[in-house]
Amino acid sequence: MRTEIYLLGFKGMKKDLMALLEYWEKNKGISKEFLISSLEQGLSTVYRKKAMLKDNIAVKIDPETGDINFVDENGNYVEPPSFPWERIAAQTAKQILIQKIREAEKTAIYSEFKKLENTVVSGRVERFENGNLVVSIGRVEALLPQKHMLARDRFHLGDPIRALLLEVRKPNRGVYPIILSRTATDFVKMLLIDEIPEIRDGIVEIKAIARFPGDLTKVAVYCSNPKIDPVGTCIGDKATRIKNVTKELGGEKIEVVKWSPDPEKFTANALLPAICERVVYDPTKNEATVWVSKDQLFVAIGKKGQNVRLACKLTGWNIVVNRSEGESPATLVLGISEEMAQKLSEAGYETIKDVSKAESKELSEKVNISEDEARELIESAIRHMQDLVNEKEVNHTENE
């Protein structure tokens, strides 16, 4: 038996239902077959509860005409139940369609944006929520958490914004499924790929990248063609390419160095702009020891140790910087005088690692300082060594 029902306020199911389903399929990407199947299952369930429809009888909707039919297990048409089922058909259909459309839209959004993970997306600042930014990306909203914003980031409502699509989560009520980041290392990598055609085309390869968000990023690049300078290619004429990336990052400095399969050459390059006089790599310790002149010591270590720490992240091994005269860089890292650094060296504490492993009482006696002062030196050295370990762990996680 074929009949008509009211659907979503419109009379004439055959015409209006098909028009609605075709609209959703064309404009929302939701399969008409999927919606018809959902309606059939939903209506069959409702009629079994309210009209005592037998289990072997199911509702079938003609995909061409929109007619509702009742069929048995053999596909034969049967009479509908003796129940005013037409009255509840429209309301049930409406509820089912709304639910399935919402579910399908969420699934479609998840599938669409999951493919865009680790790519740069453009959007517009929609609103602020507890220090976080809600960003409109086309037809969906994404969240840029405060911890994923750069210190210099200043946005207003309606401002355009670019960020890395860090993660797409399964849809969950009350939780933004799309998470953005401007502090992720891959954000810089993708900006470089977008800006530099030679990287995008595979002529120049990014071998490694290390970043202190908002301050400094080091990028190691390589080209198999000896006629092409990978560093100059990335920097561009008058540094225009790097300036464009730096501008997007609010002034964050980008240093591009040449990658080398030789660990000693790569170490020296990673410490640029410092000039290394000698590098010795120990594969058993995964450690490189570097000697620089006195005037290059601060450059090699960098402000707050950033240069050497980024070089460690970039290369993947520990780097120990020494002055060519054999003195330790402790004056910079531990905040002590050169005289005290000399005393430490003469007492056998030639590296910061040596100081971190010292006993306060023994150290105080050897360099003639109080035990409290010795303890402070040791704690400072331990903090520095722990920072290096943390940087290695972060680098390992990012590489995975």
Written overview of the protein:
With 400 residues, the chain is α+β, with helices and mostly antiparallel strands. It has helices at 13-28, 32-50, 86-114, 185-195, 197-200, 230-235, 240-248, 263-270, 294-301, 306-315, 330-333, 338-346, 352-356, 360-367, 371-399; strands at 6-7, 10-11, 58-61, 68-71, 120-129, 132-137, 140-144, 160-168, 178-181, 205-212, 216-222, 253-258, 278-282, 287-292, 318-323. Residues 1-12 and 394-399 have low confidence and may be disordered. α4 (185-195) crosses α7 (240-248), α10 (306-315) crosses α15 (371-399) and α14 (360-367) packs across α15. 44% of the residues lie in helices and 21% in strands. It is built from 15 helices and 15 strands.
Give a nutshell description of this structure.
By secondary structure, the protein is α+β, with helices and mostly antiparallel strands. The chain contains 15 helices and 15 strands.
Helix percent reads 40-55%
CATH structural fold name of the domain at 6-113: N Utilization Substance Protein A, Chain:P, domain 4
Shape by Cα distribution = elongated
The largest sheet, given as strand count, sense and whether it forms a barrel, is: 5 strands, antiparallel
Query: Could you state the CATH homologous superfamily of the domain at 6-113?
Result: NusA, N-terminal domain
Structural class: alpha+beta
Mean of all residue-level pLDDT scores: 84
β content, as a range? Answer: 15-25%
Element pattern in H and E: EEHHEEHEEEEEHHEEHHEHEEHHEHHHHH
E-strand count? 15
CATH hierarchy: architecture of the domain at 6-113:
2-Layer Sandwich
Distance from N terminus to C terminus (CA atoms, Å) equals 61 Å
- Level-1 CATH class name of the domain at 6-113: Alpha Beta
Supply Rg: 33 Å
Low-pLDDT stretches are 1-12, 394-399
Widest beta sheet: strand line-up: 7-6-5-8-9
What is the count of DSSP helices, taking H or I runs of 4+ residues?
15
